[in-house]
Design brief:
The complex is a heterodimer of chains A (about 220) and B (about 280). Chain A has helices at about 1-25, 30-65, 70-90, 105-135, 140-155, 160-165, 170-205, and strands spanning about 95-100, 100. Chain A is mainly alpha-helical and about 220 residues long. The mean pLDDT of chain A is about 90. The mean pLDDT of chain B is about 95. Chain B is about 55% helix and about 10% strand. Chain B folds into 2 domains: about 5-30 and about 245-280; about 40-240, HUPs (Rossmann fold), CATH 3.40.50.620. With about 280 residues, chain B is an alpha/beta fold. Classes of the chains: A mainly alpha (about 220), B alpha/beta (about 280).
């Protein structure tokens, strides 16, 4: 059992990890074919993961409704929304429109999902303004620098700002192109080196947390 | 409680009202301030402009309805430009919740420009696998999408004539609202399959993509509503983005004024507290 639970997954990880790290540098047709097959498999696994995710969500919320936990009403709404959408989706064969005519699934998408998601995102503007008023204070030198940079970029990114302070556009562009890009690049390099190190640890079996902590 | 303290604890509904008015009034009474074109947006425009007729232009709509206000106008402007240039437009999405929106955008602009499905454009739809889809497209487009969104077999479509994989794409733009988006298309697509690429994203994501832009990994970037408004101005067809810029201008200035007021009261409160402690000691 230990072999199936521990050694086999570690072996698969090591072989596939080394194989596909090397594959990137080998342009031979058989190497490309290997990549095509593997990514096709990834797509299939991705499809199953979607089913698994939906099933898990159903289980979790069904338990919440059964036990009448706090906020179980929201789970009921989620259930109704998901089942309703799946039903009309199957009925419409997954199509939002057929020959230009909107299906019931398309109606749910266009008149429920689009405005609801749009509203959720739009509400952010109000909360950001309120949060900025309450917390964006020059409490220290660092906070003051951040505040000034934010004000310049906010001014420089809109026509009214550029109209009121003509230089704000160019200064904002400089902040984004020079200061922001260099800091972001440093972060990216750090993150990438970390990812390479972690990949090596996983490939060579040093990092095993992905195997889970079940009994051996 | 001093006046400054009271002002710092102002009812947030007043702030909501200010932001609401700053959004609504410019939409009702537009001012139409001139929009300066940035080099990053010009980069995408000029590359499309330089493409010969019937070149293959690939767009991936990697967003969902939550980012519609920013990315929808970008998509509309890009498609109008591509169709006007008579390019062959191949579209798809990596976000399942954006499939309907992408279909609506492509169908709407194609109809407006008198373009024919399958001949001038195709919408491939969505396929599971996230970044694996990009790699698969780089290997073989027809195996990744055997049929288009409408169910028509992709093999044999005139719009895909001579296109086997991403290697045959003349220009690609990912309009991304997160992951997978512009970065994923660069890492898994452009880097391996060597096609020219530009990007479009929401305003908050734009600063994160500047390293890719500065190093030439992408040749242009349309950032947020501002980027969309710049693109609309470039193609000479002003739409929702230009209309929305007045509202965005007003809300930005309102937030700046609010932050300044808050800091003014904060410092006045701090000075008063300092004076009190001096008197006390």
């Amino acid at each position: 059992m230990i072999f199936l639970r521990r050694q086999l997954p570690l072996l698969i990880t090591m072989v596939t990890g080394l194989l596909f790290a090397g594959q990137y540098y080998v342009p031979h047709p058989s190497s490309e074919q290997l990549l095509t097959s593997a990514t096709k498999w990834l797509q299939i696994v991705g499809g199953f993961a979607l089913v698994l995710g939906v099933t898990s969500l159903f289980h979790q919320h069904a338990a919440k409704i059964r036990r009448k936990e706090e906020g179980w009403g929201y789970s009921l709404v989620l259930y109704a929304g998901m089942l309703g959408t799946i039903a009309v989706g199957l009925w419409a064969n997954g199509k939002e429109s057929v020959e230009g005519a909107m299906t019931a699934f398309g109606w749910v998408y266009s008149y429920m999902m689009v405005p609801l998601q749009g509203t959720m995102f739009a509400i952010l503007a109000f909360f950001i303004a309120s949060a900025a008023y309450r917390s964006f204070r020059a409490r220290s030198r660092e906070a003051a620098v951040l505040l000034i940079a934010a004000v310049i970029v906010m001014m420089g990114r809109v026509p009214l700002g550029e109209y009121l302070i003509p230089l704000s556009g160019d200064v904002s562009q400089w902040i984004l192109n020079v200061l922001n890009a260099s800091v972001r690049r440093a972060i990216l390099i750090g993150v990438s080196l970390g990812a390479v190190a972690l990949s090596f640890k996983i490939i060579f079996g040093v990092e095993r947390s992905y195997l889970g902590g079940g009994k051996e | 409680m001093t006046f400054s303290e009271r002002m710092l604890k102002i009812d947030r509904r007043i702030i909501f009202l200010v932001i609401g008015l700053c959004t609504l009034l410019p939409l009702l009474y537009p001012v139409g301030l001139p929009i300066k074109i940035s080099s990053e947006v010009r980069g995408v425009y000029e590359h499309i402009e330089s493409l010969p007729e019937r070149s293959v232009f690939f767009i991936s709509f990697d967003f969902d309805p939550a980012s519609k206000p920013e990315l929808h106008p970008q998509a509309i402007a890009l498609l109008r430009h591509a169709f006007r240039k008579n390019l062959r437009v191949v579209t798809m999405t990596l976000w399942v919740s954006g499939t309907g929106l992408a279909d609506q955008i492509v169908t709407q602009v194609a109809k407006e420009m008198g373009k024919e499905n399958g001949k001038d454009y195709v919408f491939l739809g969505w396929s599971p696998g996230n970044t694996a889809v990009i790699i698969n497209l780089g290997q073989n487009l027809y195996k990744t999408f055997p049929s288009d969104y409408g169910g028509k077999p992709t093999n044999g479509l005139p719009v895909l004539d001579g296109v086997q994989s991403l290697r045959d794409v003349d220009y690609m733009v990912s309009l991304g609202a997160g992951n997978p988006g512009v970065e994923a298309w660069y890492v898994f697509g452009k880097d391996k399959y060597k096609f020219e690429m530009g990007g479009g994203c929401t305003g908050v994501m734009a600063p994160g993509l500047y390293p890719l832009l500065r190093s030439g990994q992408i040749n242009g970037l349309i950032g947020g509503l501002r980027g969309a408004a710049e693109y609309e101005s470039l193609i000479g067809q002003k739409g929702k983005a230009v209309a929305g810029m007045d509202a965005q201008s007003a809300t930005h200035v309102a937030i700046i004024v609010l932050v300044m007021i808050c800091n003014l009261f904060y410092f006045s409160m701090r000075r008063a507290t300092g004076r009190q402690s001096q008197v006390g000691s």
